[in-house]
Amino acid sequence: MADFKTHTLVATVISGGLGVAALATGLATPADAFCYWLAGTLGGLLPDIDSDESLALRIVFRLFGALVAGLLAFYWMTTLPAWQVAGLACAGYLLVRFVLLALFARVTVHRGILHSLLANLLFGVVAVLLSYHLFALEVRQAWGIGGFVLMGATVHLLLDEIYSVDLAGMRIKRSFGTALKLTDWQQPGLTLLLLVASLTGFWLSPGASAWVQSLDLALPALSGMDALAVSDLLAWLQKGWQALRAV
Length: 247
Ligand SMILES: [Zn+2]
What we know:
mainly alpha, two-stranded antiparallel sheet, 8 helices, 74% helix, binds zinc ion, hydrolase, hydrolase activity, YdjM-like, membrane
């Protein structure tokens, strides 16, 4: 199993690289790219929130607590005196950070259903919904954030699986096959619940057409670049082959 540091580092580097690529191809503004980078990094931590002692669990619940506190303050700030709003926000944060976290830790099992591709899909959809409905971001940005969360979480599962192969000794550890899975088939009820939740999430999400359109705009530029790179590579290989035959 890859540790927290490895997961954070890999997720940061990959989502940073992809964020820059999105910026370079005109798919994202600098602000979008920054949000995508954060979303990908957060996605890289999400599958381990089912591990009771993990730093990922505490980070995610701190963020969630801050979100709840912010929402409570935003909702009540015009109707209640400031000290009550502050008290309410603090209470909301503490409730999420300690009570909800303890409940969550009690009901989840490490490497259970939340450490699966199906759960990643749900994380992505929830990110789209929060970005669009709660933070009032544009459709394109909301789907971009959801996509990066999904990508980060999937990289996490892949990384755990890679780490279950002992590369030095070429042995396969017992944990092989437990990290990257479609779902936890031992839990058919929970699988169905996650599937229904993901589909409901998709149904509540804004249409992805705006995002697809911007991809359409960026693709010609991207494929032009690819064609160039491929022809360069072929020419280089041809040269190498000729040089080899000449020897
Ligand atoms: Zn993991």
